[in-house]
């Protein structure tokens, strides 16, 4: 990797200017956190500390991930959960990789048209508000399977910090207050939620202590009885009771037959780096691999971060990959996903051949024949002293899910059913226009974008990364990897750098404020791109990452870095990267 790069710029006057640019083009971020023995990066600082304590007491990265999963359900209720679902990507110190899918499944009584009215039109809010929007939760089964198969510590040890935080409470800091701001109105409408998350109907104030007695009871039941206490015991009964009383269709049988799937992760390589990420029922790993395979054919490092040329190549790769996502992918038990094709270098070459070098592509032209937005998720990244690495993304889908707590359980429930295609061609919460492969069927999981990813190089862990952000999860994760590998940024810079996104439909590029300069924008508009600024920072994700051996490539290659670097997105309000 060159430290300096000679660039030739042609000025309008015809004059050619040679300038020296440093490779580190973005240097406005704080330094990443450092650690020699382990690193935990989560969206809530108390949960990060729980993870570090587990590592310090001899637990491995999976033990820490399980304790963090339970702790975030207490201290980060906007997305941390027992009533939702998610994915865990694991890379063990010997290089073995695996993937746990504990995403929600559609209830047995669900039907393909359950969110449509008599005329076949979507009923507004039906798939996002109220108990009909709830998928069968998987988080507890997921955490328990992770612990049993890959952890080393007893269940009680890993649940104890969450139980303490719920029963004794924790003091709300500014970041916590900020993460509640979006949910207060919704939570106020549900008496069971309002009792816990508001005081006399008013938002909790800075410095207040949030105590969650019922949640502590539910966690204690899991600590004593394991996943069965949730799926076969009183907790399931409480959720089914609340669902039945409020127009939902969840039945005890849905809980009794919930199963975690252990799946082969999606694998691909990018410029010599090995990427391991989420397979279907997530689209994340496949779409990241497809985009990276296309971009590998271009000198992205030379073209530079944020240049019109780099951005247009990224957008075209995203456009093609999101068509595949939205039309072909679904739950692997129901759909034959073209995994081999989407990860193949030959397919990427076909896509490159279809990219017009001068003009913007047109999404409508890619539509297959017959093909008929505040939110929250959370990602955390962990590595231990032996190099075991874990990436977890889990969610209630929308911020606080449906915003309702099953009375007596303390548990907020998800609205993950909205990730299904409610009607081909009708956009969901994230504007995704999807097809039949993702239609609702009993026991099926809705297609996800969550992309917990682990990158390795020469057989050693290199980067652990992921983010919330709905459909943007994919491009946020992708851009963090590119910013490190192609643009030489340090980990914090790579995560903080302003982002762009395209998802096939709607056919427009969205960018964060300041992501592209006015002259870059003029070049892109001149080629036919429609570019819009989305100033809503909450949907641009709160990525959480770890880099091994240096804060950036230069330091890794020089071999003079600390062992681990961690960075929580500067967009995050309450998170922390803690190393030790
Ligand atoms: O699984 C998915 O793709 C979505 N349910 C994720 C939701 C999300 O990231 C919301 N956070 N910003």
Automatic annotation (TrEMBL):
Identify the pathway: Sulfur metabolism; glutathione metabolism
Gene3D superfamilies from the UniProt entry: 1.10.246.130, 3.60.20.40
Its recorded reaction(s) are:
glutathione + H2O = L-cysteinylglycine + L-glutamate; an S-substituted glutathione + H2O = an S-substituted L-cysteinylglycine + L-glutamate; an N-terminal (5-L-glutamyl)-[peptide] + an alpha-amino acid = 5-L-glutamyl amino acid + an N-terminal L-alpha-aminoacyl-[peptide]
Q: Does the keyword Hydrolase apply?
A: yes
GO process terms (BP): glutathione biosynthetic process; glutathione catabolic process
Entry binding sites for L-glutamate: 103, 395-397, 419, 448-449, 470
EC number(s) on file: 2.3.2.2, 3.4.19.13
Query: According to the UniProt entry, where is the signal peptide?
Result: 1-27
Q: Where are the active-site residues found?
A: 377 (nucleophile)
| Source organism superkingdom | Bacteria
A Pfam family in this protein?
Answer: G_glu_transpept
Annotated GO molecular function terms are:
glutathione hydrolase activity; leukotriene C4 gamma-glutamyl transferase activity
* InterPro entries for this protein: GGT_bact (IPR051792), GGT_CS (IPR055262), GGT_lsub (IPR043138), GGT_peptidase (IPR000101), GGT_ssub_C (IPR043137), Ntn_hydrolases_N (IPR029055)
Alphabetically sorted, this entry's keywords are:
Acyltransferase, Glutathione biosynthesis, Hydrolase, Signal, Transferase, Zymogen
Q: Does the keyword Repressor apply?
A: no
Q: How is it modified after translation?
A: Cleaved by autocatalysis into a large and a small subunit.
Into which family does the record put it?
A: Belongs to the gamma-glutamyltransferase family.
Instruction: Describe its assembly.
Output: This enzyme consists of two polypeptide chains, which are synthesized in precursor form from a single polypeptide.
Identification of the protein by name: Glutathione hydrolase proenzyme
